[in-house]
């Protein structure tokens, strides 16, 4: 079978390649062998390829197989698993998702209903579950619908679009922040009444304050870091929270120490990498929400472009480019 592998850290488009590897073993107890058909390419996947997660880590001679999320068909189920061959499933986390076949613990395999498309199923876990984690962060921050305004940077991203939909459904006022003026119009196609501010205009922070219309900015949700997160943190009201969930800029967040003592702001972070360790009850509720989103709001699961697995380097290059309005997928139908 084919698998996306890297043999050294570097620019993902340069070091990722699809190679022939041995098929996986038969599934053991509570395992599922999945013929993977589609898998999303996430920025977080590429951080691992570039070596930013573990600086100085040695790549083994046999290389590292990439990917943790995918969609496919059950090929064989081990003992104790109630999934028939041919069943449509999505999975996360599962090692080597960018392979044509993967062995996954049944605990992390989700059966896909008929009203969810293949493309949405491929995106069922990482982005919606991140949105669910962020929604809980908002709820525990003390922010209240009708009182506090929530600011989302990188508001055109897949996670942000899902989260905006969830927040608006719950009565929150939201201001989106994007880095290009064209992104304002793109986001307003999906959310026509959403105030959206572009950082490519000087004084964008004042535009965010104006869009808040006198309401306190209670939470900033940011996957960018660097100057964007630093500036957005300065907009927080008394007791406000900055919730970080990414590092797109690769730059540190710089916040005045006075913000902590005089405004009592808080900084926290979430990552889907910790989702699998949550209690089963919470994970089931999150997956139920993800399936409802995929079935009921397919417009929040757009696809930018689908590449064959052989073109994994090209797919990685597109993910790193600005101006996307959908998720990049790798296919092996």
Automatic annotation (TrEMBL):
SMART domains: PKS_ER. Keywords: NADP, Oxidoreductase. The keyword NADP applies. Residues 14-330 form the Enoyl reductase (ER) domain. Pfam families: ADH_N. It comes from the Bacteria. InterPro entries: ADH-like_N (IPR013154), ER (IPR020843), GroES-like_sf (IPR011032), NAD(P)-bd_dom_sf (IPR036291). One of its GO terms (molecular function) is NADPH binding. This is NADPH:quinone reductase. It comes from Rhizobium lusitanum.
């Amino acid at each position: 079978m084919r698998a996306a592998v890297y043999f050294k850290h570097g620019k993902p488009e340069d070091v990722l390649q699809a190679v022939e590897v041995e098929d996986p073993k038969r599934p053991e107890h509570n395992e599922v062998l999945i013929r993977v058909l589609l898998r999303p390419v996430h920025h977080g996947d590429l951080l691992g390829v570039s070596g930013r997660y573990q600086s100085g880590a040695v790549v083994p001679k046999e290389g590292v197989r990439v990917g943790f999320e995918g969609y496919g068909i059950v090929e064989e189920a081990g003992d104790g698993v109630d999934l028939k061959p041919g069943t449509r499933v999505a999975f996360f986390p599962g090692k080597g998702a960018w392979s044509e076949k993967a062995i996954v613990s049944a605990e992390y395999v989700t059966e896909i209903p008929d009203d969810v498309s293949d493309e949405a199923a491929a995106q069922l876990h990482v982005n919606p579950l991140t949105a669910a984690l962020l929604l809980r962060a908002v709820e525990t921050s003390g922010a209240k619908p009708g009182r506090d305004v929530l600011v989302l940077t990188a508001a055109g991203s897949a996670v942000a679009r899902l989260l905006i939909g969830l927040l608006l459904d719950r009565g929150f006022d939201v201001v989106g922040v994007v880095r290009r003026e064209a992104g304002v119009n793109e986001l307003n196609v999906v959310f026509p009444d959403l105030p959206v501010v572009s950082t490519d205009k000087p004084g964008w922070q004042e535009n965010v304050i104006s869009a808040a219309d006198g309401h306190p900015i209670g939470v900033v949700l940011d996957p960018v870091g660097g100057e964007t997160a630093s500036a957005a943190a300065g907009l927080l009201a008394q007791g406000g929270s900055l919730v970080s969930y990414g590092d797109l800029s690769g730059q540190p967040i710089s916040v005045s120490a006075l913000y902590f003592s005089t405004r009592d702001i808080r900084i926290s972070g979430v990552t889907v990498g910790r989702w699998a360790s949550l209690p089963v009850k919470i994970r089931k509720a999150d997956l139920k929400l993800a399936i409802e989103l995929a079935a009921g709001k397919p417009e929040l699961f757009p696809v930018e472009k689908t590449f064959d697995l052989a073109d994994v380097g090209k797919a990685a290059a597109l993910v790193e480019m600005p101006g996307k309005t959908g998720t990049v997928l790798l296919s092996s139908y």
